[in-house]
Design a protein that fits this description.
By secondary structure, this protein is α/β, with parallel strands linked by helices. It is built from five helices and seven strands. It has a seven-stranded mixed sheet with strand order 1-5-4-3-2-6-7. α1 (27-43) runs parallel beside α2. The radius of gyration is 14 Å and the shape is globular. The model has no long low-confidence stretch (mean pLDDT 89).
Length: 155
């Protein structure tokens, strides 16, 4: 359930591809993730992600350089201050939606909120793309019970 949103809520009606990636990622996968992001940007696909880990943030900025639609899912309550490029994407282009399943009282990201955010994102999306995950990581646990009706691809 979305507790709070900011931006173009109509984006939820589109076909969405979730991008998830562990915080620790081998160097050999980094460029593949960047190439994937550029491909999504060029194709104009709507991408949903937490954009929290270093690689997810990099992917976000590759996507933001395009014109396609983006959904950011927070692992905490809604942001009080937005970075200028995020504000611009919401205000002028109406191409960004920020959603959160958390009340505003949740101010910090934790492993527990990250796991809940990942599960929430998996519920919202149509397909899932995994940049990288560790067998013992939060992301691995989030994928254990994903609906089999959703396509999961690994970069």
């Amino acid at each position: 359930m979305i507790v709070s949103s900011l931006g173009n809520i109509e984006l939820l009606k589109l076909h969405k591809t979730a991008f998830l990636c562990s915080r620790k990622i081998p160097a050999s996968v980094v460029l593949k993730c960047y190439d994937w992001a550029i491909e999504q940007r060029n194709m104009g696909n709507c991408v949903i992600s937490g954009f929290h880990s270093k690689i997810e943030k990099d992917v976000f900025y590759y996507l933001l350089a395009g014109k396609q639609l983006i959904i950011m899912v927070l692992a905490r309550g809604m942001k009080k201050r937005l970075e200028p490029e995020i504000k611009k994407a919401i205000d002028s282009a109406d191409r960004l939606l920020i959603v959160t399943p958390f009340e505003s009282s949740i101010k910090r990201v934790s492993s527990k909120t990250s796991a809940k955010r990942n599960q929430f994102m998996i519920e919202l999306t149509d397909e899932i793309v995994i940049g990288h995950f560790r067998e013992d990581g939060i992301l691995s646990k989030s994928l254990e019970g994903y609906p089999k009706s959703k396509t999961v691809r690994f970069i």
